[in-house]
Design brief:
The chain is α+β, with helices and mostly antiparallel strands and about 375 residues long. The protein has two domains: about 220 residues, 3-Layer(aba) Sandwich (Aminopeptidase), CATH 3.40.630.30; about 130 residues, Jelly Rolls, CATH 2.60.120. It has twelve helices and 17 strands. β3 and β4 form a beta hairpin. The protein is globular and about 60 Å long.
């Protein structure tokens, strides 16, 4: 029988980043505070593991580990998550499908952990709380002999977790409840984590990355065979006040330039499956995802998934060529921001115009680097 990865985690180590502290709670007060967070954020669509005690105290399933994040300024626990073994007996018959566990062999499953539930108080949704909490769990999983962390996320959280270093392990799917979920995986892939400046990388610099090469190569093979697993560029901001969807294109602009650039943009709301850009049309515009998700398609095949902050249409715009793919809204209530050449040319300061082109070049460079990894 496989040894439980969750049961070998050390409960003595905390992670402090800025005002946030992540840890594995053990005393009754912290466990009750976590239960309160779970209750306060509980929705009908929240992923749950059956058989887990609601008070996280005596009688808790020994294959479930709770992790918590504390706001050290207030002392309040503001987020928590549940970790389970990937090979655990599953009371929920949809778990195999939800996390695509059929992709992994039995031996590999014993080295994987799943975030079966993640809850964050609403006012902390866009802060560094979730990245700190997930980074802590990932580091502990590796220290315990694990190799990867799995989770399922909603479209509105895709970009935040992608910036942390998580990537799709299966396609975006619609659940029986009508919401959308995307299964994702976090791997100790030094090259990828370096490219996106993931905050996880400094925490795991001491590990032997060669131990994980086989798993990382397996993932790239999976992406080659399943193009819908490819994603847009990712950029992690260390300043939570800069966690804005337009950062990829506006970073480095003067305050006046940013205001003028965004003022000359067109905001467009889209329904699911609405086409924003068609194949073979001119590349006069480019844009970024304000909320929701887009899919880039060639024929009937999805070749890239894009989330909040991701640019699209920039290649045809830069090269002044026709578009080679169409861009389609992948989730309901998707909203995008579009820019024309006029928006760039109207910037009064030449240095601001240079910044726009530099940011476009950076996105292309990231895409080239990731494409090379897939070749």
């Amino acid at each position: 029988m496989s040894k439980s990865l969750i049961n070998t985690l050390s409960l003595q180590w905390d992670l402090w980043i800025g005002q946030y502290r992540a840890f594995f709670p053990t005393n009754e007060e912290d466990l009750k505070a976590c239960a309160a967070v779970m209750k306060a954020t509980d929705t009908a669509n929240s992923p749950k593991m059956t058989g887990v005690s609601s008070d996280y105290g005596e009688g808790q399933d020994n294959k479930v580990q709770l992790a918590a994040c504390q706001d050290t300024y207030s002392g309040e626990i503001i987020a928590c998550l549940q970790l389970v073994d990937a090979f655990s007996p599953k009371d929920d018959g949809n778990q195999d499908q939800q996390y695509h566990l059929d992709f992994f062999g039995g031996e590999r499953l014993s080295h994987l952990a799943i975030i079966s539930r993640l809850e964050i108080l609403p006012e902390y949704q866009k802060t560094a709380a979730a990245p700190v909490l997930m980074s802590h769990c990932f580091v502990e999983i590796l220290k315990a002999g694990g190799q990867a962390l799995l989770m399922s996320c909603a479209p509105e959280n895709f970009s935040q977790y992608k910036r942390l270093g998580m990537r799709p392990i299966g396609p975006l799917r619609k659940t029986a409840q009508g919401d959308f979920q995307l299964p994702m995986i976090l791997l100790p892939d030094r090259d990828y984590l370096s490219v996106i400046h993931s905050p996880v990388l400094p925490l795991i610099r001491g590990i032997d990355f060669s131990r994980y090469q086989t798993l990382c190569q397996w993932y790239y093979e999976l992406v080659r065979e399943n193009s819908e697993l490819q994603i847009g560029s990712a950029l992690y901001s260390t300043d939570e006040n800069d966690f804005k969807e337009h950062l990829t294109i506006t970073e480095g602009l003067s305050e006046k330039g940013r205001e003028a650039f965004l003022k000359n943009a067109l905001v467009k709301k889209c329904k699911e499956e609405e086409v924003l850009m068609k194949e073979d049309e001119g590349g006069e515009t480019f844009g970024f995802v304000h909320q929701g998700m887009l899919k880039v398609m060639i024929g009937d095949e999805t070749v890239v998934l894009l989330g909040e902050g991701d640019l699209f249409g920039e290649i045809a715009y830069i090269l002044h060529t026709k578009r080679s793919a169409r861009v389609v809204a992948a989730s309901p209530d998707t909203e995008v921001v579009l820019f024309s050449e006029t928006a760039v040319n109207r910037l009064e300061n030449e240095s601001d115009r240079t910044v726009i082109w530099r940011n476009l070049a950076r996105v292309l460079a990231q895409k080239v680097m990731m494409t090379n990894k897939l070749l």
